[in-house]
Amino acid sequence: MEKKELNEDRIRRKRRNSIFNICLYVLSACLILTGVLIILRNCTGVFSINTAGDPEATFPPTVIADATPDATALPGPDVTETPDPGPRPTPEPGKKPVSVSFVDYGVNVAVIPVGVDADGFMDDAPSADVAGWLESGACPNETGNCIMGGHIRFHGKLGLFSVLRDKLKVGDRITVKMEDGSYAFYTVISINEYPYDQVPSSVMAQTGMRRLTLITCKGDYDYIIHTSRTRIVAVCSPVE
Description:
This protein is of the alpha+beta class.
């Protein structure tokens, strides 16, 4: 009788151990899967798709205009993100941007016009795969600052502008397509990071030399300040 009880007790222990081992395997698989998903979230090609076609124009030889910019072109000491006040002339028909392409990385982003919110800040793009162009700023190829902003991540989806954080470097080529099918060509001349509340006013200044400014956030969303705490700013000079 004791032998039978010992056998039954051994069987029960084996079952418990088997259940415990299965739980460990499931937990391990979940942790591995979570890690894989975290890695994939930082791969633009997996969670984001190009929203604009490949540029049809060939990038010209890289001869940079105004290679030594004036003081209004690059970030200065002032601390504000507020765009310059005052209306600009109505853009020429067909000159509004419709897409921006990061030529060296095959990332092509649709662009839509955005305005300024009640606090005087540039409105956000409405999705991870679209960039916003500040309508009150310059159009591509116009004198002044053509300003575009996009997301690194939006509602859990990696944004196409994550290329600013992950890949973009000085000397990279940027192509902007306009409504009329014409193109503007730029090369990156500076990439800087700033605390969200210490962005120089020159970043959003709409006057000065002809240039393209690309802006995105860096870091996780902060629910206290309702934004990320860091800005990445790439300034691009036109290619003649």
